[in-house]
Amino acid sequence: MIQIEKMTFNPFQENTYVLYDETKECIIIDPGCYEKNEQNKLVDFIAKNDLKPVKIVNTHGHIDHVLGNYFVHKTYGIDVVGHENLKQQLAAVPTYSSMYGFNAYQPSPDPVTLLKEGDVLKFGNSALDVYFCPGHAPDHLVFHHTGQGFVINGDVLFKGSFGRIDLPGGDFETLKNSILNTMFKLPDDTVVYTGHGEETTIGVEKISNPIHHASF
What we know:
Layout: E1 3-9, E2 14-20, E3 25-29, H1 36-48, E4 52-57, H2 63-66, H3 69-76, E5 80-83, H4 86-96, E6 111-115, E7 120-123, E8 126-132, E9 141-145, E10 150-152, E11 157-158, E12 161-162, H5 172-181, E13 191-193, E14 200-201, H6 202-208
Parallel strand pairs: 3-4, 4-5, 5-6, 10-13
Antiparallel strand pairs: 1-2, 2-3, 7-8, 8-9, 9-10, 11-12, 13-14
């Protein structure tokens, strides 16, 4: 059974997730740790629970979700996994990191393993189905576990909201399609772990999310 630990890091209040199972293997999804205390919090949790990190997984390559990629890569000697468009997104981060005040940002290594729609992300005894959900970002993936009924969805869908589309590569109609035709096809009781803010469920968002009537 997969255990999920959420940690909220950096000024963007980004949610980093550590997923692990009974084998003690874990994956670190969207490491946003930037300050030393944030890095220590992640390392301490992994050590306390005797976990073995095996992958860095990026839902997408925006700065707030990848601030800790380099640190985690160097600390544990593990590679980055993401969509084929992730490399281009990561390459852009150093060009604007200082604009957001991250002057000590260390560039992420390129992804070694590329994932696409229909792939399965495996660690330990666990497996997550991979869906491609662009619109917020052109490299955006989400990770669904059918048996336990949850999805790690990054910045696609939020509680009562949805991902912004005013960043490079963002597109409202593409995002709306990702939400209506991928996310909202998941079972209503699916728990949505978001890139920012609180968890929600597919059923709640299908009823109340403003994506239904929003337009740009």
